[in-house]
Amino acid sequence: MRSLDNLNLNEKKIIIFDMDGTLIDSIGVWNITDQKLIEALGKQKIELDIIQQERDTFLEQHQQEDIYLAYCGYLKQKYHLSGSEKDILALRWSISESYLKEQVDYKEQSEIVLKELKKRGKILALATVTTQLQLDIYEHINPHIRAKARLSETFDFILSKENLTHKKPHPEIYQKIQERFQVSEKECLIFEDSYLGVLAAKNAGIEVINVYDRYADLDRDKIEAIADYKITHYGEFLNYLETLYKK
Description:
The structure is a single chain. By secondary structure, the protein is an alpha/beta fold. The protein has helices at residues 27-42, 48-61, 67-79, 85-102, 110-119, 132-140, 143-148, 151-154, 172-181, 195-203, 220-226, 234-246; strands at residues 14-17, 123-127, 157-159, 188-192, 207-211, 229-231. The longest helix has 18 residues, at 85-102. The model has no long low-confidence stretch (mean pLDDT 93).
């Protein structure tokens, strides 16, 4: 792990951001959603940290094309949920919808970092396994994201779950961005919160800044063992930018 002082931002043409947990506070939404889902269909109340750990493990170990449908099948079997996998997935979406539309927000000062990087001529890319449906909600409905930094106006290129064959930690999502802009690994920089995201960046051979998210604490040691840099909040990166451009 190196200090941000060692980061050569001037050589970076493409700055790539993950979405959930990195730019926006959303991981807790899915923990609450799955807790309510299990309670509604399985008549059990499972602790939020257990739900997250089990979901993270499932997503890490499985590669199905429709990973969230498969995850609902896992929940159905483990917690004896009533209904088909598709019914469970539909209810999961219904539970989460109001949170996504009304409550999810940018992490503090993250939108300021986006605007500062854009002002400095950097190409911004969004690389997320979030579905296009969720991105559409953020783009057209969510008042916080629309007011602070609309996705379509902020990012030069956006990749969502539908654009991908492989999920993180496979490096495909980052390699597609490289191919799109014809840039080398050295010309890219990635912001990621989770272990799988950081590992995907390393598998792509690209420098990565780990953005602290408390929902990734279970993997903190693994993250810090492989990340190139870390920030606990975006104010740290703004301080770095201020110092860099004063030179």
